Amino acid sequence: MRATVLVRPKPGILDPQGQAVGNSLRHLGFEVGEARVGKLVDVELTTDDRDEALAQLEQMCEQLLTNPLIESYAIELERA
Amino acid sequence: MRATVLVRPKPGILDPQGQAVGNSLRHLGFEVGEARVGKLVDVELTTDDRDEALAQLEQMCEQLLTNPLIESYAIELERA
Hints:
homodimer, alpha+beta, Mth169, Chain: A, 3-stranded antiparallel beta sheet, elongated
């Protein structure tokens, strides 16, 4: 089963990359408010059980993929 | 209207960060296949028209947010 983990800076955490993107977009003429930049990780799991996959992905997020002090995450499982 | 742009390395493009993540996950004991790392951009648009928003976001991707030679993108609009 394939999954995508979306990692974002938590609200209130300074995001200079997002500020730079927002400024550049406005400079190019786009009417945008705040922009925030995060990362995504696509991962191929060996399990096809959705509950098991979610449990594994949460562990991965806590152990490696995110810094829980400053980042939040969302998990998207491939539709069955 | 809020939107999220997901930017991924195209298939076949070397992704050393993804390889490192995959190796680290396996080292931690997770059974995973390939991992790929990309970025995401959350952006707040002034328009509430979905077609207009999509058109603007595609332009943003082509002009600033992605390198079309090596990256593909997907756009997720906030549900109305």
